Amino acid sequence: MEQLQRAIIERGSVLSDDVLKVDQFLNHQIDTNLMINIGREFVSRFQDSKITKVLTIESSGIAPSFMAANELDVPLVFARKKKSLTVTDYIYSSGVYSYTKQEMNNITVSKNYLSSDDHVLIIDDFLAHGNAALGLIDVVKQAGASVAGVGIVIEKSFQEGRKMLEREGHRVESLARIHSLEGSKVSFLEELATK
Hints:
Layout: H1 2-11, E1 13-14, E2 20-21, H2 32-46, E3 53-57, H3 62-72, E4 76-79, E5 91-98, E6 103-110, E7 119-127, H4 131-142, E8 146-156, H5 161-167, E9 172-180, E10 187-188
Parallel strand pairs: 3-4, 3-7, 7-8, 8-9
Antiparallel strand pairs: 1-2, 5-6, 9-10
């Protein structure tokens, strides 16, 4: 997705060979125009999948997931990282390790919001090692629902996340696939067309 690649190049910051900071437009300050187009792109890629729910993890996945769910006219459900006082033990849960934050989170979703009738599109901001996506897939499986696919805004293709998900038979659609962050430079698997 050209608009997203341009945002990464112009407003992203490479912090190391493994870490890309995109807080100017995705996970701290939100570029709403870009999010609208990201939502539309996910819908175009999954339009024939009969999706009944979109599922993400708080908080960085919420903006792109909201836009996709809005375009699909289906509910958005987000997994919580911290247990709320209003959420009882009537939950699905899974452990997810965050490499960026160096912590384990026990994500939870109320059983009221996912059922065996659901066909779920999982959306997240990043795919690196695949832990968040696998945790969300585990929650979907606990509900007896089916996974329509996994939509990723930015994929670090040099890490093993995609391979793990595809090995389990999941469809992965990433809007920007990063080949490398070496030398403080972003290089994509599919480079921008020269204009």
